[in-house]
Specification:
Strand content: 15-25%
Number of helices: 18
Largest sheet: 8 strands, mixed
Number of strands: 26
Distance between the termini: 49 Å
Helix content: 40-55%
Radius of gyration: 45 Å
Mean pLDDT: 87
Length: about 650
């Protein structure tokens, strides 16, 4: 239990706990999908940053059916005859693979027999179907090609917001496993290069294409949260924003304006790009939701084909994500680091610079990792970093305010403003975990008491008596503060002050200066009381006389009391000696003509620090009440009025 209490009271561990807690809150929000949209949008932004302009993929050509083509042909869907003519031209041009992204589940005469003949005779042609949905609704491929590898599904995975970031390789239902349209095109293209798909030896559930094992999308990969991961999915790596592929219109192809070499040994995809026949999708490059930002479905299939070819030939790796456990650890590490660094820096302005620099650094890291095809969580990491740093800064600021209030409560009323600020600036030396650290210090303690208070109390009314007492105590307070003393306590008509606190003195020079300050303060108190007595004498107010005892040596300094009433004080034999000397001054008062306004008695230890600058009378060994051994006592008679500052 003691160990646990120590751990929980440890300030660094509390800071670390704030970082971990902030990270866990962010992770919780992420698990609730509250950050998913922001993460996906950030991913889109990173994709735009990391995708440099590239030349069109020379292996892929698009034949687009435009609005002008529809007006020229005056038909939709295009007839079997028109499609057969297009396929004949492409076959004659030497296209390696031809993809028809047009549904052909029923005949569109005329020319049906011609279309059937070319589809049957050319296995390089791949057509499309729509995979059945949960209600069994779909679009089948050409009946002529059922059961062959010339039909692939062209279903697109559209994320919330309408953006396509991933796609299918395979889908499975009760009828079996179907292959996607784009993967079929890529596989038929690669057959000539002797590249075929096979199971990865170390992970049989994954497909290996050429030199690349294609990872299978998981429900919480990247910024996704529990998304549909049915079938075999992959994140789409776009080859460019726009104009990534050479494109010809259907009419230009039919009219013979397209040279045969433009199609030779290429993957040719035929599809609609007409606005009146909507088959468009948004991509990470779609900066808006207007029509101009959309990409035809045929072009998306071309992007998938291009990605499969790049991976198969070893030119590119697929986009991967960290394991979910590693992502959680990554977020916690950055949140904890943000908390610790914010505590270490301390200053809110430096923390702001740190947070800003850290966010910039995370963006750079995420950028370079995405270039290396790794998608790491950026948004939750930044949120954990910023929130942890902000929380620690706020907590430390609040803690500092509380500590400052406590220190000012302890010291500010009893020391000069400069000393109070010095105490705050050096708080680390005597504060530990928000508490005053008890210390062994070498200090000089001063007790001062007004003599004759009882007699004065009999002469004055209560208000006048309090005014008389406060006048003397205020004067004493000002004198003590001016000599770098720290007032410890008021007791009736007296005051206790410490010189050499709260910071530990490690040099003899500083210890000696404290003793000189205390003795000089005592003489200044006597002079100030003398000044007040002259004023009071003219006003007929009773006069006061101050008795002062000063002792130097080892004390224990710390705070006593509770949260509601806390006091900084010193205890030890030296404190008792100073108090006894003040009492001794009362016993030996009278006959002291040189100091009619008071007396100043010191111990031998204090005398040893004065170095002959004072007129001092040796009183000899004295038996003090409560002390078994006699104590050598001295009376300070006079000294230089100006402040004495020792040269280091």
């Amino acid at each position: 239990m003691t160990f646990l209490r120590t751990v929980f009271r440890s300030f660094p561990l509390r800071v670390l706990g704030i970082g971990v807690l902030a990270s866990l809150v962010v992770i919780g929000c992420r698990q609730l999908a509250l950050l998913e949209n922001l993460e996906l949008r950030t991913y889109d932004w990173m994709v735009r940053l990391t995708t440099a302009p590239v030349s069109p993929d020379p292996r892929i050509v698009l034949v687009a059916i435009t609005e002008d083509d529809l007006a020229s042909l005056d038909e939709w869907p295009i007839s079997d005859e028109t499609l057969a003519n297009v396929l004949n031209i492409l076959t004659a041009s030497g296209a390696r693979v031809i993809g028809v992204d047009l549904y052909r589940d029923r005949d569109v005469p005329p020319g049906t027999n011609n279309l059937h003949a070319i589809l049957s005779a050319n296995p390089r042609i791949v057509t499309v179907m729509k995979f059945p949905d949960q209600n069994g609704r779909g679009v089948s491929g050409p009946p002529l090609l059922q059961g062959t590898d010339q039909i692939g599904f062209n279903d697109m995975l559209v994320d919330p917001g309408g953006i396509v970031r991933r796609g299918f390789l395979f889908l499975e239902d009760q009828q079996g496993v179907a292959t996607s349209f784009s993967l079929l095109l890529a596989l038929k293209y690669l057959e000539k290069d002797g590249i075929v798909p096979y199971s990865d030896p170390s992970q049989p559930e994954l497909m290996r294409l050429g030199t690349t094992t294609i990872p299978r999308f998981q429900p919480s990969d990247g910024g996704y949260v529990r998304r549909d991961a049915r079938g075999y999915q992959i994140l789409l790596k776009y080859s460019g924003a726009r104009d990534s592929f050479t494109r010809f219109s259907l009419t230009s192809l039919l009219s013979g304006d397209v040279p045969p070499e433009a199609m030779r040994d290429k993957v040719v995809v035929i599809g609609s790009a007409a606005e009146s026949v909507r088959d468009d999708f948004y991509t990470p490059f779609s900066l808006g939701k207007d029509i101009e930002q959309q990409v035809p479905g045929m072009e998306l299939h071309a992007h998938f084909v291009s990605q499969f070819l790049r991976m198969a030939l070893g030119h590119e790796m697929p986009v991967r994500s960290l394991l979910e456990e590693l992502e959680v650890g990554w977020i916690i590490v950055w949140g904890s680091l943000g908390a610790v660094l914010a505590w270490w820096l301390g200053s809110p302005w430096r923390v702001m610079l740190l947070v800003g620099g850290g966010v910039g650094g995370m963006i750079v890291v995420a950028y370079w990792l995405l270039l290396a095809n790794w998608w790491i969580p950026l948004v939750p990491t930044v949120m954990a970093w910023v929130s942890a740093g902000g929380l620690v800064t706020a907590w430390v600021s609040q803690r500092n305010r509380q500590e400052r209030a406590m220190l000012m409560q302890l010291f500010s009323q009893h020391v000069s403003h400069e000393v109070a600020e010095t105490i705050w600036a050096g708080r680390d030396q005597f504060l530990h975990d928000g508490r005053i650290r008890p210390q062994h210090l070498t200090a000089t303690v001063l007790f001062a008491d007004l003599e004759g208070f009882t007699a004065v109390a009999e002469q004055l009314s209560p208000p006048d008596l309090m005014q008389w007492l406060n006048t003397y105590l205020l004067s004493m307070t000002n004198v003590i503060s001016a000599h770098h003393g720290v007032i410890d306590d008021y007791f009736g008509d007296g005051v206790k002050a410490n010189f050499g606190v709260p910071f530990a003195r490690t040099h003899e020079h500083d210890i000696r200066q404290d003793a000189i300050n205390a003795v000089q303060c005592g003489l200044a108190l006597i002079q100030d009381i003398h000044r007040l007595n002259q004023v009071h004498a003219r006003q007929g107010i009773p006069l006061g006389k101050v008795r002062i005892g000063v002792a130097s040596g080892s004390v224990i300094a710390g705070s006593v009391g509770g949260r509601q009433r806390l006091k900084y004080t010193t205890v030890g034999n030296v404190v008792n000696l100073a108090a006894r000397l003040e009492q001794l001054g009362k016993e030996r008062s009278g006959g002291d003509t040189d100091q009619e306004s008071g007396s100043l008695l010191i111990t031998h230890e204090t005398r040893s620090y004065l170095d002959g600058v004072w007129a001092i009378e040796e009183l000899g060994p004295v038996e003090l009440r409560g002390k078994q051994d006699s104590v050598m006592v001295y009376r300070v008679l006079s000294g230089p009025p100006e402040r004495i500052e020792l040269t280091p």
